[in-house]
Amino acid sequence: MSYERRMEELTKPQSMELLGSVPVGRIVFTHHALPAIRPVNHLVADDLIIVRATDGAAITGLAEYRGMVVAYEADAFDPVRRLGWSVIVTGTARLITDPDVAARYRCRLDPWIAGPTDDVISISTDMVHGYRLVPGDLFTGADGSTVGPPSVLPQAFSRGRN
After folding, report:
1. What number of other Cβ atoms are within 10 A of residue 26's Cβ?
2. How far apart are CA 5 and CA 15, in angstroms?
3. Are strands 24-31 and 68-78 parallel, antiparallel or unpaired?
4. What is the mean pLDDT of residues 5-18?
5. Residue 113 pLDDT more than 90?
6. What is this structure's pTM?
7. Does domain 5-158 have CATH number 3.60.10.10?
8. If we measure between CA atoms, which residue out of 129, 128, 130, 132 comes closest to residue 154?
């Protein structure tokens, strides 16, 4: 059985809550005048997205001096029910240079890859766009029967829902 779906726009607080509920996202930045995308684990703190970078990472040098505009995206989808959400943040990535602040975030963010990951980067949340794919209205199936949305969504996909 299939269901119609529709997109619901989320508020910034809803979007940030969902972003904080998953451990991994993708940072999008410009490297040698071309788009680059890297999967990274993150945490949300004080309206910032915090990521750690490996020594010599392309983004570290760019973010260190003047900051750089990046996009950050995270999502969660149920491929069986075709429901879920996506959050995209656009902001400025900056290397955190205060040793105490960087150390505080390093303790809270365990990298997934081996090797030195001493650099900590904050991403401002200047523009936040979140969308949830939800069951739609009733519709008539090919056999003439009327069907509607499922009554229960998995908990992971219903967090923050109004």
Report:
1. 15
2. 19
3. antiparallel
4. 94
5. no
6. 0.78
7. no
8. 132
Of 94, 88, 89, residue with least CA distance to 66? 94
Torsion from C-alpha of 89, 94, 98, 99, nearest 10 degrees: 90
On whether the CB atoms of residues 117 and 110 are closer than 8 A, the answer is no
Residues 15-46 pLDDT 10s = 999 999 999 999 999 888 899 999 999 999 98
- Domain ranges (residues) in the chain: 5-158
Q: Determine the Cα–Cα distance for residues 138 and 55; give it in Å rounded to an integer.
A: 53
SS3 for 68? strand
| Interatomic CA distance for residues 63 and 70, integer angstroms | 10
Strands (E), the chain: 5-10, 24-31, 34-45, 48-53, 68-78, 83-95, 119-124, 127-135, 139-140, 146-147
Cα–Cα distance, 103 to 85 (Å, whole number): 32
Taking the C-alpha atoms of residue 47 and residue 50, their distance in angstroms, rounded to an integer, is: 10
Rounded to 5, what percent of the chain is helix, strand, coil? 20, 45, 35
